[in-house]
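REQUEST ID: PR-0412
SUBMITTED BY: lab tech R.K.
PRIORITY: routine
TASK: structure prediction, single protein chain
INPUT:
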Amino acid sequence: MKFTHKLIAAASLTAMSSIAFAQAGETVKIAWIDPLSGLMAPVGSNQLKTFQFFAEKFNANNPAKVKFEIVGFDNKLSPAESLNAMQAAIDQGIRYISQGNGSSVAGAIIEAVNKHNERNPGKEVIFLNHSAVDPDFTNSKCSFWHFRYDADTSMKIEAMTTFMKDKTDIKKVYLFNQNYSHGHQVAKYAKENLARKRPDIQIVGEDLHPLAQVRDFSPYIAKIKASGADTVITGNWGSDLALLVKAANEGGYNGKFYTYYTGVSGTPTALGKNGEGRVFQIGYGHYNMGGQYQKWMEEFNTKFKDDIYTFSMANILNSLSLAMAKAKSTDPVKVAFALEGLKFQSIAGENEVRKTDHQMQQTMFMTVWQKTDKKYPYSAENTGMTLAPVQKYEPYVASTPTSCQMKRPG
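STATUS: complete
OUTPUT:
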């Protein structure tokens, strides 16, 4: 079946069409290492289906003419389990690794990939980070073998606080996050950015809670209400955000939430009709992107009764196929060099894999929870509600500097 997708730039297709690819027809396996059990299992299950769904679409037509196969490994949200899964994948000959749920896991994988590649020349692997957003990974801990497709926390908070600085109704903010590197970074950058852009805003409370362990957030909501906070900033995801907003609804907290992951499994259902106009999400995509992507969203929902929200997986496959075509190879070393500085079209506009640190530079969107309408019709988890864009930020707005001093092979 002939399938033409709009995510690949026409210029790239024209430039590649006359090249004979040595790797045409080759199967490229990508090991997806994320949770398929525990409280975060719904997120992992959704993302694995999303990755495999996009692989099917890109297999129909991509510049390198390769076939992508996504192989799932359950890491139970554990760094130790993730390293075992990574070794199992390598033993199976898989040379591309993808993960994103939990920066604690991502940090362990980066270190392990660095060591493996140093000890096994000719058998190198690449880490394609779809969602782990600790800024250190593209700064002090940057690696030639690591590519991040999500926007890091420094970028998300930069865009989020650019939006918040003009909201005069925001006066008192509570910082509520998970107690690991990601949550720490959200709190750190939120305080720094608000102090710079809105020094009049008070930080009236701050909490860090265990990752994927809390089932009842009502005591935390009571603290937030008692603080007088009119706004909560949280990087929580999965069950930790779904249960938080559930507790807020039940506890009568009517303040605003500024989030990263409102669209992630379970949170739309937990919000329901509540939170209209009060819950915001910063991200590099949203439910109502239009065009080919909207058709894929609808097809995925019909097939799986679920929503796509990890848009980076399409960008991973898009950029990989372009880099493999450019390198005329699927060898990870050659592909890594071809990925550096690569510019390509996504549904949101032009993306660039910044050569300095391998951090994706991309368009960001501030969206708000509201009822579906003719302009923004996609119903998240069949709630009749959606995340509608209220502000679009071109890549340069959220771009932040890097301290990366990358060591490259050779």
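NOTES: Residues 71 and 142 are 26 Å apart (CA to CA).
REVIEWED BY: pending
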